[in-house]
Design goal:
Layout: H1 4-11, H2 17-22, H3 36-52, H4 56-82, E1 102-109, E2 114-120, E3 123-129, H5 133-147, H6 154-168, H7 173-178, E4 183-187, E5 212-216, E6 234-236, H8 242-251, E7 256-259, E8 263-265, E9 273-275, E10 280-282, H9 283-291, E11 302-305, E12 308-310, H10 315-322, H11 324-328, E13 332-336, H12 342-357, H13 362-374, H14 382-385, E14 388-392
Parallel strand pairs: 1-4, 4-5, 6-7, 7-11, 8-12, 11-13
Antiparallel strand pairs: 1-2, 2-3, 8-9, 9-10, 13-14
């Protein structure tokens, strides 16, 4: 009897009509036993088969299998980091439910190339770039490090960002424009978790100047809830004691919670916390506070962490921060991945809230806020506005 790895190995090398039936196998059941190397090998083999597939329907089945594997790996990473203290959407989104003005982007970094899956109009397309995972990761880390230095020159940042733009956005940009796409949803993968997506630069303007940008762990981990969010917020500051902070969360009736208290995300979830006046609120405690009160209708729609920060260069800490909405059971979250000037943060949050009050979607409202900072004389440097990111459902 073949073990699971052998089944996977054989399942991804069959061709012809056998492929169509093999893709019905649920990789979600097999992924826990795969090593990182085996994961990449399985995805690589399926992508090569999709390229050689003679029928469009078979190609789409194979690409959706890659999409499923990518999302299940993200689910696994989140569950492991949070030790199961997370709430995934009960009604996740599918490719057919994505609005026509939105593109879903899965950048898959393999050893010898970058394959970008783009979901648009209920179909997946692939674009290949001759850049391997190791070189991509180095470029991302360099840009992220430079971005956190307020005094860093625009020239150095823009050159590094332009290189990443050529790899991660340029290959499919014209197709997006032809389809009048206005929102890009990038699906997080380990190599790209450190990347401040809004700061990708085409030589003339940043990505956020043309598109609203959202970070996601995949459609299967995105809520289908599209309820609009008002600008009304429960504000929780570092002046509250842990007891008052917890009581406010438990009695909250608003759909948006804004935590302006410092939130620290480390490589281990057990070391991550929100700092209150007299104590630390751990992620496990936050989960316990919010899990019981989240129902289908009255669940938290948006969690804002405006003073959050991660360990410099540490992927796992960024993973934890980006997954905060799964702890809170929220549809989406707005976070900052590094410490930002308090005045710049205040301007951004105020403008973001104004956009929500005006009826904009979350992604569009955050874009408006980032552009407000970008076009201001004092806060135009990407280190001020590039840190902020919308995670989850951007509608």
């Amino acid at each position: 009897m073949l073990n699971r790895r052998e089944l996977i190995r054989q399942g991804v090398v069959v061709v012809g009509t056998a492929v169509a039936s093999s893709v019905k196998t649920s990789f979600a059941q097999l992924i826990p036993e795969l090593s990182s190397t085996a994961e990449h090998a399985a995805v690589d083999a399926i992508l090569r088969q999709a390229t050689n597939a003679s029928e469009a329907s078979t190609r789409q089945q194979l690409l959706r299998q890659v999409q499923q594997i990518t999302e299940e790996l993200n689910r696994k990473a989140i569950t492991e980091y949070l030790a199961g203290a997370c709430q995934f959407p009960s009604t996740p989104m599918t490719l057919d439910q994505v609005p026509r003005d939105t593109a879903i982007i899965y950048p898959i970094a393999l050893q010898d190339r970058l394959v970008i899956l783009v979901g648009l109009n209920s179909r997946l397309q692939t674009y290949e770039v001759n850049i391997g995972a190791e070189r991509l990761a180095r470029a991302v880390r360099y840009l992220r490090d430079e971005m956190q230095i307020v005094g860093a020159s625009f020239g150095g940042i823009d050159r590094a960002s332009a290189e990443l733009f050529r790899w991660l956005a340029a290959p499919y940009l014209e197709d997006l424009r032809q389809n009048s796409v206005s929102t890009l949803v990038f699906v997080s993968t380990p190599e790209l978790r450190l990347l401040p997506l809004a700061t990708l630069y085409d030589g003339r303007r940043y990505l956020i100047e043309e598109f609203a940008v959202v970070s996601s762990f995949g459609l299967g981990l995105t809520s289908t809830q599209t309820t609009s969010v008002s600008g009304d917020q429960l504000l929780l500051t570092e002046q509250l004691t842990l007891a008052d902070f917890s009581a406010s969360l438990q009695s909250n009736s608003l759909s948006t919670v804004h935590v302006s208290a410092p939130a620290y995300f480390e490589a281990q979830a057990t070391d991550s916390y929100i700092q209150t006046l007299d104590d630390k609120l751990t992620l496990a405690s936050l989960y316990q506070l919010l899990a019981a009160q989240n129902g289908e209708e009255d669940h938290l729609k948006l969690l804002i962490l405006s003073a959050s920060r991660t360990v410099r260069g540490e992927q796992q800490s960024v993973l934890g921060l980006s997954a905060i909405n799964f702890i809170a059971g929220a549809d989406s979250s707005v976070t900052s991945t590094w410490q930002v000037n308090a005045q710049a943060t205040a301007v951004l949050i105020a403008t973001f809230s104004l956009g929500l009050q005006q009826g904009l979607g979350k992604a569009a409202a955050l874009r408006m806020a980032q552009l407000e900072l970008m076009h201001s004389p004092r806060f135009s440097h990407p280190s001020y506005w590039g840190s902020f990111q919308l995670n989850g459902n951007g509608i």
